Amino acid sequence: MDTMAELLATKPPRIIATSPTATVRQATQLMNEHGIGSLLVTEAGRLIGIFTERDVLRRVVAECRSPETTCVGDVMTSQVVCVSPETTIEEVADLMRRQRVRHVPIIDRDENLAGMVSIGDINAHRFAACATELVQVQAYIMGRA
To answer: pLDDT tens digits for 67-83?
Structure first.
């Protein structure tokens, strides 16, 4: 079974992060600039939270907070669901479904941030695997295997 390490190897090696002292406005501008739905929140190189579109809706908009003055650290999700590079894609897909999250950071044995995957990454990988299987089955049926 494919693992997070294998999935990360297919993605551009970029980790988009912000600090807990950044404003919500700065963070959302960074998310828009990169076309992403979440940011990792780091301090001294360590993951301390995740800031998502859901956080903006629930903790900023719904509570009528000002994006210009509210700090990410005050509205981020601090209980972050993380996995290791050895975790399988199926395990992560199940975890995302059960925890109702769309982004999962990957943390290595030394507690360093290795990357992050989204539900879109998981779905794209699963689709590609299914497409490959389909081609193999068709080749088998047609006697080309």
So the answer is: 999 999 999 999 999 99
